[in-house]
Write a structure and sequence with these properties.
This protein is α/β, with parallel strands linked by helices and 378 residues long. The protein contains 14 helices and 16 strands. Bound molecules: nicotinamide-adenine-dinucleotide (NAD).
Length: 378
């Protein structure tokens, strides 16, 4: 299992995984189109690309291109499939593009492997996502698990952001989302991740390949894109703080996410690559803790040592979930994964790194305008 192909391996998670694999003596091939949204308009000078350049065989091209994909798959033992479009909000109005890159290209890769008796690939690790759970798991007033559908716009308009039992109107209690929880994505991005996962889990065993789907929560840390306005509140808020601009906190700031530090994600992924006999594994990868957006703002202000005006605006985006955090029971037990970096330590590292890059032009205001124009943000 020494030769690994990482599609999208020049991205945030991929480039960090490259370093770990390289240090362990793997021969790594990266297939990546160096998308401008992630790598800027001079992608070959992007810090992420530079960080992997001398560690891998690099193929610049799209996973949607059959010839390129065929070439990249030659001689590999493991495929880590990361290449994807990743903006939840953006996916709601670029439906065709998201579906092609995330679903169609995965289907094509599986067809190519199916046409080769001697493909040599033993395992495929797929970056799935917590977004497939939508709102995730709650418990009702009687302690029964329940999976609320998306929130009503009428509620959000009057600042009622939490989840309620549709029958009794009683508040629901947030609990950790395990892998058996209902899959019901609330965005096109989430739908593409669900279908990608189902394709890989269904087809790979027929091809003699062990599929492992890692349902990553919100991954953060040094190396994440500070200029992509479509993903990641840590990047967006950091840029605003460094540019001394006010922060608009959506909803009431009590919405939460499970932020998992990049080193923990790489460690989990290495386990998914190296552990023998994982079978058809589906694992949550997170910190196992919910952190609300108000806390994120406080932590960033603390470590940047700068206060900017914070407006808790009550704005909301259609398709956004209220909360979701991972139950890590399965991955702890089966892969021996344990997150090691606390949110506070992770933020300290992230801020130290972000300061070295300084403020960036991110197009954030334009992305907000786009969402508003399309009626996706209120
Ligand atoms: N970062 C997170 O919080 C998170 C959470 C859940 C799941 N994921 C998944 O993990 C994977 C990696 O995420 P990331 O944060 O490193 O994203 P990223 O955007 O930093 O990296 C994705 C890489 O894929 C490349 N790419 C995009 N379209 C491509 C195409 N058509 N052909 C070839 N390459 C292409 C980009 O150039 C980029 O280098 C993605 O599949 C994403 O959906 C990420």
């Amino acid at each position: 299992m020494k030769r690994v192909l990482i599609t999208g391996g020049a991205g945030f998670i991929g480039s960090n995984l490259v370093s770990a694999l390289h240090a362990r003596g793997y021969e790594v091939t990266v297939l990546d189109n160096l998308s401008e949204q992630i790598h800027g308009n001079d992608p070959e000078s992007s810090p992420l690309f530079k960080s992997i350049q001398n560690k891998v065989r690099f193929i610049r091209g799209s996973v949607c291109d059959r010839n390129t994909m065929e070439r990249a798959l030659n001689g590999q033992n493991v495929v880590v499939h990361y290449a994807a479009e990743t903006g939840t909000g953006q996916s709601m109005y670029m439906v065709d593009h998201y579906t092609r890159v995330n679903i169609q290209a995965t289907a094509m890769m599986l067809d190519i492997l199916g046409s080769r008796k001697d493909h040599g690939i033993k395992r495929m690790v797929l970056a799935s996502s917590r977004s497939i759970y939508g709102e995730g798991r709650y418990s009702d007033a009687n302690g029964r698990p329940t999976y609320p559908a998306h929130r009503d716009e009428a509620d959000m308009q009057v600042g009622r952001f939490d989840l309620y039992d549709p029958h009794s109107n009683a508040p629901l209690t947030l609990v950790a989302t395990d892998e058996e929880s209902l899959i019901h994505p609330s965005s096109v991005y989430g739908i593409t991740k669900q279908v990608q996962e189902q394709l890989v889990m269904t087809v790979c065993p027929l091809l003699g390949i062990e599929p492992v789907a890692l349902r990553y929560q919100n991954v953060y840390g040094p190396g994440q894109s500070l200029s992509n306005p479509y993903t990641g509140i840590l990047s967006i808020f950091s840029n605003l703080i460094m540019n001394r601009k006010p922060i608009n906190v959506f909803e009431d700031g009590q919405e939460s996410r499970d932020f998992v530090y990049i080193n923990d994600v790489v460690a989990a992924t290495m386990l998914a690559i190296e552990r023998p006999n994982v079978g058809q594994g589906i694992f949550n990868v997170g910190s196992g803790e919910a952190t609300d957006v108000n806390t994120v703002v406080q932590m960033l202000s603390k470590y940047f040592n700068r206060d900017v005006p914070v407006v808790i605006s009550g704005n909301y985006r259609l398709g956004d979930i209220r909360h979701n955090f991972a139950d890590l029971g399965r991955i702890r037990k089966q892969l021996g994964y344990e997150p090691k970096v606390s949110f506070e330590q992770g933020i300290a590292n992230f801020v130290e790194w972000a300061r070295t890059l300084g403020p960036m032009e991110s197009g954030y205001e334009q992305s907000i305008a786009e969402m508003k124009e399309r009626g996706l943000m209120k």
